[in-house]
């Protein structure tokens, strides 16, 4: 494995921190927004970002919702695909359909 390829264990912490910083949340604010008890919110998000612990999928989904990104963003190791997911997640359903049609057209070329 090359040094440029993140291990699957390193992807979630990196994406979580990336999305949190982009959103402007502190670790505590994100944890509370995701429904984590306010007394442990900061510690738990910190442990997720450090890769010390990995949240259950339900917690990942709540974190993603709070960060306004698709859950898949938090697990995608390819930076371009992750950024596409983040952008697509902010689009209306109609615009998502248009993006998909454009992507399918590009794939056929």
Automatic annotation (TrEMBL):
<dbReference type="GO" id="GO:0003677">
    <property type="term" value="F:DNA binding"/>
</dbReference>
<dbReference type="Pfam" id="PF01381">
    <property type="entry name" value="HTH_3"/>
</dbReference>
<feature type="domain" description="HTH cro/C1-type">
    <location>
        <begin position="16"/>
        <end position="74"/>
    </location>
</feature>
<dbReference type="InterPro" id="IPR001387">
    <property type="entry name" value="Cro/C1-type_HTH"/>
</dbReference>
<dbReference type="InterPro" id="IPR010982">
    <property type="entry name" value="Lambda_DNA-bd_dom_sf"/>
</dbReference>
<protein>
    <recommendedName>
        <fullName>HTH cro/C1-type domain-containing protein</fullName>
    </recommendedName>
</protein>
